[in-house]
Design brief:
The protein contains eight helices and eleven strands. It is an alpha+beta fold. Helix content is about 55%, strand content about 20%. The two termini are about 50 Å apart. A hairpin with a 2-residue loop joins strand 2 and strand 3. The chain is elongated. A five-stranded antiparallel beta sheet has the order 6-5-4-8-7.
């Protein structure tokens, strides 16, 4: 039973790991749907208390909540990009705080602008007119909530990164000195939850560039390593790794077949039937290496 449960957890995490952004946006959308439905019905129930006749239609509080949630969801990718661009730094905390406090104003302005635009469209479609009210006072009212939401999402972002890296297992060089050495490593150290284990370089199928990280793909697992592909490949060449695309390098010992395409590019198939893009820039040199 424990083995089945463990396999199920691994399978679920593997599925999530293929499209984390899609799953996260779906979870956020579900959260907003539930939360905003509760808020909208609460507004209607408050206005209808003691048999009072609300001054607005039933659909209006739902429109207010939905437009706010939709605007937030559209801005989430921008927030994530900004959080990556200006990460938390205790040594430069004052700069970090100033930049993010300024960003709350921009975020709130974008959120309010989108929200009002969506409401204008909905009200126009319903044959009415949406009145935002006094811009200064209403913006300050919205800014308080948006600033809190901004830092709330920042907290979620760092919590997610911490938990995700522990569940996924983040790779690193065996020690700090090894990172600056030109020698080819034989192993990478992976920290996963409260465990540490080694991954042999020869067991890695291919490398994938992912921003400030390089994903090490080994036996269906993905281990992010803080490095760049351009700096890692020269050190991995001795172990049989060769770049085949600006974002990919493959372990030539794992290559099963190559497929050429009419465009001049191609595909590389490794022993687990995974296909990788083969750029024409690296194609000839790669074929020579296989001989």
């Amino acid at each position: 039973m424990n083995e089945i449960s463990r396999d199920t957890k691994v399978s679920l995490f593997t599925q999530f790991d293929k499209r984390p952004r899609v799953y996260l946006l779906c979870l956020l959308a579900l959260y907003f749907l539930i939360n905003n439905t509760i808020n909208a019905t609460s507004v209607w129930m408050e206005a209808s208390r003691d048999d009072a006749v609300p001054e607005f239609s039933l659909w209006e509080p739902f429109a207010w909540e939905i437009t706010s949630a939709l605007s937030t969801l559209l801005l989430i990718p921008i927030l994530v990009w900004w959080f990556k661009l200006v990460p938390l730094s205790l040594t430069h905390f004052k700069r970090f705080l100033v930049l993010h406090l300024g960003a709350t104003v921009i975020y709130s302005a974008l959120h309010v602008g989108l929200m009002v635009l969506f409401r204008e469209i909905i009200y126009m479609g319903m044959g009415g007119n949406y009145d935002f009210g006094d811009i200064a006072s209403e913006f300050f009212y919205e800014y308080r909530k948006d600033a809190w939401g901004y830092f709330f999402f920042m907290g979620l972002y760092y919590a997610y990164r911490f938990i995700y890296s522990r569940l996924k297992g983040e790779a690193s060089f065996i020690n700090d000195q090894e990172q600056s050495k030109p020698d080819s490593p034989e192993h990478f150290l992976v920290k996963k939850l409260d465990k540490e284990f080694l991954v042999k370089v020869v067991d890695i199928d291919y490398l994938e560039s992912a921003g400030n990280y390089v994903n090490l793909h080994a036996a269906g697992r993905i281990y992010p390593l803080r490095s760049t592909l351009s700096s890692l490949i020269p050190r991995m060449a001795e172990r049989g790794f060769m770049q085949i695309h600006r974002s990919f390098a493959v372990n030539i010992n794992k290559v099963q077949s190559i497929e050429s395409m009419s465009s001049g590019d191609g595909k590389v198939y490794i022993n687990n039937s995974t296909s990788l893009p083969l750029s024409r820039r690296y194609k000839d040199k790669f074929k020579q290496q296989l001989k």
